[in-house]
Amino acid sequence: MTLDASIASRLKRDGNGLITAVVQERGTGQVLMVAWMDDIALARTLETRRATYFSRSRQQHWVKGETSGHTQYVHSVRLDCDGDTVLLEVDQVDGACHTGDHTCFDADQLLAPEQ
């Protein structure tokens, strides 16, 4: 799969050829996780609607839920104004975090909302 040239030309990748992917739950708006994508991962996601990312530690592509069953069905993908981040709106099955939590942002609240 090749990323459409009109999309690829708008991306501002980091030194490793990656862009940030922010994953938001459809319906609740809750941020579930942040991951990385390269052109191949973004192309696969756009074509299949299955969230595909690039693992910096393993140096390979992975489809969310392929081994865990905790899948993400992608409803929409938006590019931010700078071209360095995409926002995926997904339906999440089970936990999005590798710990099994629903969101990767359940663990540590550094600043509580004002009352």
Distance between the termini: 49 Å
CATH architecture: Roll
The CATH top-level class label = Alpha Beta
Low confidence ranges: none
**Count of separate structural domains:** 1
* Residues in β-strands, percent: 25-35%
Task: Give the beta-strand count.
Answer: 6
Rg over C-alpha atoms, rounded to the nearest angstrom: 14 Å
- Which class best fits the helix and strand makeup? mainly beta
Q: The biggest beta sheet, please?
A: 4 strands, mixed
Task: Assign the CATH superfamily.
Answer: Phosphoribosyl-AMP cyclohydrolase
CATH topology: Ubiquitin-like (UB roll)
| Strands in their spatial order, largest beta sheet | 2-1-6-5
Mean pLDDT: 95
Q: Helical content, roughly?
A: 10-25%
Q: What is the succession of H and E elements?
A: HEEHEEEE
Number of helices: 2
Backbone shape: globular
Feature tags:
2 helices, 115 residues, globular, Ubiquitin-like (UB roll), mainly beta, single chain
Task: Tell me about this structure.
The protein has 115 residues and is mainly beta. The protein has two helices and six strands, in the order H-E-E-H-E-E-E-E. The protein has one domain: Phosphoribosyl-AMP cyclohydrolase (Ubiquitin-like (UB roll)), CATH 3.10.20.810. The chain has helices spanning 5-8, 39-48, and strands at residues 19-25, 31-37, 52-55, 60-63, 72-79, 85-92. Strand 5 (72-79) and strand 6 form a beta hairpin. The chain is globular. The model has no long low-confidence stretch (mean pLDDT 95).
